[in-house]
Amino acid sequence: MRNIFYNIAMRAESKILAALSLVVGVLLWTIPKLAVIFAALIFLGTGLLVAARIACAITSTATTEPGQVEVDDQFVSIHIATYSEPPSVVKETLDSLVNLEHEHYEVIVLDNNTPDPELYEPVREYCEELGPKFRFYHYDDVKGAKAGALNISLEHADPRTDVILVLDADYQARPGILKKGLSRFTSSDIGLVQFPQAYRNSREHCGLSWEYKQFFDVYMKLANSWNTVLSTGTSAFVKKDPLIKSGSWSGDTLTEDAELGLRLHQHGYRAVYVPEVVAAGLMPTDMKSLRAQRRRWVLGNAQGLAGLAKDRTVGFGRKVMMALQLTAWANPLLFPLTTLTLGGLFALMVGGLEAKLVFTLSAMAVVTYLTGMMAYFLIATLKEDGPIGAALKAYAVHLGMAWEGAVSWCEVFVDSDKSFVRTSKFITTPKGWALVLPLLFSVLGALASIGILMHGGPFTLALGSGFFSILTLGLGTLRWTLREIRRRTLAQKKKAA
Fold first, then answer.
1. Which of 26, 129, 243, 394 has its CA 20 to 30 A from that of 152?
2. Containing domain of residue 485, as a range?
3. What is the CA radius of gyration of the chain?
4. Residue 76's beta-bridge partner residues?
C-alpha cells in the first residue's frame, strides 16, 4: 500500500497539482488580493485562447494551388519506422505500396528496439517476398525513438533519393500518393509537403475522427496562408537536402515531426499543406493508447514551443500562428479548476470577498472554455458541411481528453519520464465497468448539482458538481466511442482474414 501511494505521489500529474495547489492556497491565506489577480489573469488568458481558436475556425480556408511539377524523374524513399507493431498491420501497409504509379521509389522498414523477434521477423520475410524495392532493417539500442529510427533510415536511403515520404506503420497508401506529393514541390524553397492524417477504422461521423479532423481543417489550412505549416508526421513528403541541412530528425522532443517543421522554417524553407487524404491509418482503440498518444502530442509540442519562444528568425505573427498549432491539443483547465476548488473551499470555510472573487473568476474561466470550445467545434464542422451531431460528438470527445490536455503540457516544468511512448495497434478489451462508471458519475454529479440548488445549498458546491458532471460525460462519451472503434476494427480485421 505504501508503494502505491508513493508511486501516485511521484507521478508528474501529482507534482504539478500539488505545486499549483500550494501556490494558490498560500496566496489565498496570506495575500488574498494577489490570489484574485492570479485568478483574473487565468480568466483573461483562457478567454484570449478561446477567442483565438474561434477566430482560426472562422478564418481558415484552403489556399493550396494545384501541383504542376513534372515528377517522373524524382526518386522517393518511403520510410516506415516500427516498434513492436502487429506484423499483420505492417504487411497491409506494405501491400498498399506495391506497384505504385510512380516508378522510382523504394520502401525502407526500420524496426527499432522491438524485443520480440516474432513481431519483426515476419515483416523482414515479407519484405524479401515483395522484391528489391522493399528493404527491412532491425536495430537494437536505437536512441531518440522514432527520430533515431528515421535518421538510420535516411542513412540507408538510395543515393538517388530526392524526397523522403514518412508513413506510420498502420497507414495504407491510396492510389496516386507519390505523384500527388511530388507535384506540390512547385518551387525550390519548399522543403515539406504535408497531407492530413485520416483513419479507416471508424464510421463517417465518429466523434474521435472529427476531433482529429478539426486540427487539419482549421490550423493546417490557416497555416498555408501564414507560411507556418508544421509537419504532423505521417503522410509527410520531405526534400532530402533541406532535411539534412536542417539537422535531420531530432529526438530532443516527443514530436519530432513538428520540431522538424520549425527547423525547416528557421533555415528559410517553406512548407505546404494539401487538404487531400493520400493514406489512412488506425485510430487508438483503448483509453491507455489514446492517452499515451495525446500526452505525446501535448508534451512534445510544448517542448517545441519552448524552442520557438527563443527563435529570432521567425516574425511575431508567424510565431503566434505556430504557437496556436502547437497548443491545439492542450487546454488551460488545470489552472481555473484548481483555483475554483480552493477558492470555493476558502469561501465556504473562511469566507471573505477575495475567496469569492477567486471562485467567481475561476468559474467564469471554466464556463468560457466550455462554451467557447463548443462554438469552435460547431464552426469548424459546419464550415466543412459536417452535421451538427458530429460537432457535438467531437466536442464531447475533446472534453473526455481534458485531463491529458490540461496536465501534459505542464510536464515541461517538472522532472518526469519524457520517453517516447508509441500508440499501440494491438486491440485490448477494457472491463465493462470502465464504460458505465463515467456516465454514472456524470448523472450523480448532475443530480447533486440540482439537489444542492433546490435545497438552497452552497452555490459553489452546485457549480462544482455541474462541472464534474460535464467533464465525466465527455469521458463516458469517449469510452463508448472507443468501443465502437474497437468493434469496427475487429470487424475489418475479420473481413480481411
1. 129
2. 1-69+183-497
3. 24
4. 105, 163
